[in-house]
Amino acid sequence: MADIVTEVLDAEPPDAYREEPSPAAAVPGIKRFDDAVDRVFDRLRGNAVADRVFYGASAVGDFSLVWQIAAVIRALRGHEREAIRLSASLGVESAFINLGVKSLFRRTRPHRIEHATRKLRQPRSSSFPSGHATSAFMAATLLSAGRPRSRWLWFPLAAVVASSRVHVRIHHGSDVAAGALVGWGMGRLVRKIWRI
After folding, report:
1. Over the chain (196 residues), what is each successive 10-residue block's mean pLDDT?
2. 5 in a structural domain
3. What is the CATH number for 42?
4. In this structure, is residue 95 part of a structural domain?
5. Is residue 10 part of a domain?
6. What DSSP assignment string belongs to 51-88?
7. Looking at the whole model, is its pTM more than 0.70?
């Protein structure tokens, strides 16, 4: 499944992704929100520490790597079923978002110029919603299930991974906000299905 998702993400994008204006441009409230979020990150961009944190978080969020590592750690600690559930849920989330939801939208990604030198992978799919945000918040919701105190670790980490996509100019703020909400909802749904 991961190979199929990777092929779709790396496929040459339709012209609509490159040429068509973002639907958000026609919605003043969303554009104002995106511009306000971008101005906040403009204060951090160029700061060596912030750039290192956010570019690093964006890289380890690719293909849910950081969350799959968390699943392996859970398995090594004797929680194999929890680890399998997390990995399987991330696979379903990736397919649903990348092959399903994103195909319903034709939102262009923010213009960026610095990523070629930083070697960040530039997805070719629609910008909306952020897959990093959906996987991050779904994983945080699952990893903190039954461990209320652990949410102080997982949700801040999810927020850093998700918001890194705005910092590196691969997503708009509204892409990340929507992705976080969808990811949290998917995590809650998985918890309800598995009664955890």
Report:
1. 41 41 64 93 93 94 95 92 94 93 88 62 86 97 88 95 95 95 96 87
2. no
3. 1.20.144.10
4. yes
5. no
6. HHHHHHHHHHHGGGHHHHHHHHHHHHTT-HHHHHHHHH
7. yes
